[in-house]
Amino acid sequence: MVVAEPDRHDRRLVDAALDRLVCPDCGDRLTRGPAGCPACDRAHGYRYAAIETDRPGVPPGTEHAIRVDV
Q: How much is the pTM?
């Protein structure tokens, strides 16, 4: 459900949901398969639709930098 609507959930929740799914094409964790795996590449692109909520006491925009770095 979370992966089907990433734009309605926080990025941490979407990332956790993706880690629990298996890619139907390569068999690895969804988004963690080899470069060029169609299903992993597609799911990886959807993860950026998720909401980036800044944590209290952290400068605004830091969540995006952490997310891109990870």
A: 0.75
